[in-house]
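Researcher: Sequence recovery benchmark, item below. Answer with residues only.
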């Protein structure tokens, strides 16, 4: 059961094409869409180096924040679009999450939405 008063960790599940939501080190659910508030984008450099060295993906980049809402893959509802800018992470090019347009590092945001088209962040 998700405790909406405690932070969650969200990361891309490349095998299933969705996002995983973890809390207190436990995988709680998968989601098609996730919206967080008070977001921190984190990359563990040791995990990134290990992935680059071994050539195998591992979970070393994720967002931490307060869960606002999520849509399970079996649900038909939609969260709607968050107004903001795109953010992405490419371990081969960058050591942090970066803005889609400027390529400047992004470490935090007021809100972030994860969905099929990628990640949008907002610092209203």
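Model:
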């Amino acid at each position: 059961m998700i405790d909406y008063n405690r932070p969650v960790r969200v990361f891309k599940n490349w095998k299933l094409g969705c996002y995983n939501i973890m809390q207190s080190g436990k995988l709680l659910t998968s989601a098609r869409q996730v919206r967080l508030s008070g977001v921190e984008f984190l990359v563990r450099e040791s995990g990134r180096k290990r992935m680059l060295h071994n050539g195998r993906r591992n979970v070393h980049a994720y967002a931490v924040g307060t869960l606002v809402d999520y849509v399970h893959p079996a649900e038909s509802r939609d969260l709607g679009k968050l107004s903001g800018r795109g953010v992405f992470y490419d371990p081969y090019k960058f050591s942090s999450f970066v803005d889609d347009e400027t390529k400047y590092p992004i470490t935090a945001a007021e809100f972030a939405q994860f969905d099929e088209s990628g990640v949008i962040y907002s610092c209203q």
